[in-house]
From TrEMBL:
Coiled coil: none
Cross-referenced Gene3D superfamilies: 1.20.1280.50, Ribonuclease Inhibitor
Alphabetized SUPFAM superfamilies for the sequence: F-box domain, RNI-like
Domain of life: Eukaryota
Protein name, UniProt field: F-box domain-containing protein
Residue intervals passing through the bilayer: none
Organism: Eutrema salsugineum
Segments forming domain F-box: 11-53
InterPro entries (UniProt xref): F-box-like_dom_sf (IPR036047), F-box_dom (IPR001810), LRR_dom_sf (IPR032675)
Pfam families to which the protein is assigned, alphabetical: F-box-like
Length: 298
C-alpha cells in the first residue's frame, strides 16, 4: 500500500485517532490549522459531544468578602481561550458541559458557552462565587433541551428552579452538592414536582425536608442520600418519622443510602464538614465527581 500522507487519511480514521490520543488542550492548540482535512476532523460532533473541563482548576485564593475568591488573570485568559476555541470547533454540537467544582468562570463566560450549546442535555456547574442570579438565569434560558443539572447549594435557589421550570421542559434529574434546608426543598417540590432523579449525597438533610420530597414529588423514581446525615428537629421523635420515611422510600425504583454510616469514612467527612463539603480537601479521590446514580457519575 502507498501511504499518501496524514492529510489524505479518511476523516473517520482521523476522528478516531484524535478522540483516543488528543486531550482538549491539544485539540484547541492548533491541530485544526494543520490542513483542511484535519480541520474537518476536528469539527466532528463525536469529539464535542462532551466538553469536559473537569481537568481545569482556577488559580485562586479565598477572600473574606464577596465573591470570596480572587482568580488571577492568567486563569481567566486560559479558560476564555479554551471556551472560545471549543465553541468554534464544536459547531453547536455539545450535549454535555462539565465544569470543575473549583473552576470559577464569571457570568459572561457561562452565558457565552451555553448560548452556543443549544443542544445541551447535561450541565455540571462550578461553584457560584463569580456567578450572579441574572447570569445563571440567562445561561439556563439558552438550554431549552436541558435534562440534567449538577449544582452547588444556594441560600436562595428559587431563581434557578424557576429558570428551569420556564425554559427546560424535558428536565428530569438534579444533583445538589451542599446542605439542603427546608426552604430549598419547598422551592424544589413546588417548581420542579415532575423531577425523576434527585441526588443529595454528602449533604445535611432535615427530616422535614425529606418528608416533603416523598410527599410532593410523585414522579420521583431515584433518590440518592448516600453519605448524608439526617437532622431531626427538637420537637421530632426520630424513630417513628424515620421508619415512615423508609417505608415511603420503598416505593421508589431506586433509593440509595449508606449501609453503615458509623464506619463509612465519607459519612464521617460529611458530618465533620456539617454538610458543607470541602471538596478540594478530598479532590485526590475525585469525590465531587462521584455518584451512586450512574447517570450522574462523572
Amino acid at each position: 500500500m502507498v501511504f499518501k500522507g496524514w492529510e489524505n487519511l479518511d476523516t473517520d480514521i482521523l476522528v478516531m485517532i484524535f478522540k483516543k490520543y488528543l486531550s482538549l488542550d491539544e485539540l484547541t492548540s492548533g491541530v485544526a490549522h494543520v490542513c483542511r482535512g484535519w480541520r474537518v476532523a476536528c469539527c466532528d460532533p463525536i469529539l464535542w459531544n462532551t466538553l469536559d473541563l473537569s481537568h481545569m482548576r482556577s488559580n485562586f485564593f479565598e477572600l473574606s468578602c464577596k465573591p470570596y475568591v480572587y482568580v488571577d488573570s492568567h486563569s481567566d485568559k486560559a479558560l476564555t481561550r479554551i471556551l472560545k476555541l471549543s465553541m468554534s470547533l464544536s459547531k453547536r454540537n455539545t450535549k454535555t458541559l462539565i465544569f470543575h467544582y473549583d473552576l470559577f468562570p464569571n457570568g459572561d463566560m457561562l452565558t457565552y458557552t451555553t448560548r452556543r450549546c443549544p443542544n445541551l442535555r447535561r450541565l455540571v456547574l462550578p461553584s457560584w462565587n463569580r456567578l450572579t442570579e441574572r447570569s445563571v438565569c440567562d445561561a439556563i434560558s439558552y438550554c431549552k433541551k436541558l435534562e440534567s443539572l449538577t449544582m452547588p447549594s444556594l441560600v436562595n435557589p428559587h431563581f434557578v428552579f424557576s429558570a428551569i421550570r420556564e425554559n427546560c421542559k424535558k428536565f428530569r434529574e438534579l444533583k445538589i452538592m451542599g446542605p439542603i434546608n427546608l426552604f430549598c426543598i419547598q422551592n424544589l417540590v413546588c417548581l420542579l414536582p415532575k423531577l425523576e432523579v434527585l441526588s443529595l449525597r454528602c449533604n445535611s438533610i432535615h427530616i422535614d425536608a425529606l418528608a416533603k420530597i416523598f410527599e410532593k414529588m410523585k414522579r420521583l423514581e431515584v433518590l440518592n442520600i448516600s453519605h448524608s446525615y439526617i437532622e431531626f428537629g427538637e420537637d421530632t421523635t426520630t424513630e417513628i418519622p424515620w421508619r415512615t420515611k423508609i417505608e415511603k422510600a420503598s416505593q421508589l425504583k431506586q433509593f440509595v443510602g449508606c449501609v453503615d454510616p458509623g464506619t463509612c469514612v465519607i459519612c464521617q467527612w460529611t458530618e465533620k464538614d456539617e454538610g458543607f463539603m470541602n471538596w478540594n480537601m478530598y479532590d485526590d479521590d475525585g469525590l465531587w465527581k462521584e455518584d451512586e446514580v450512574s447517570s450522574l457519575h462523572l
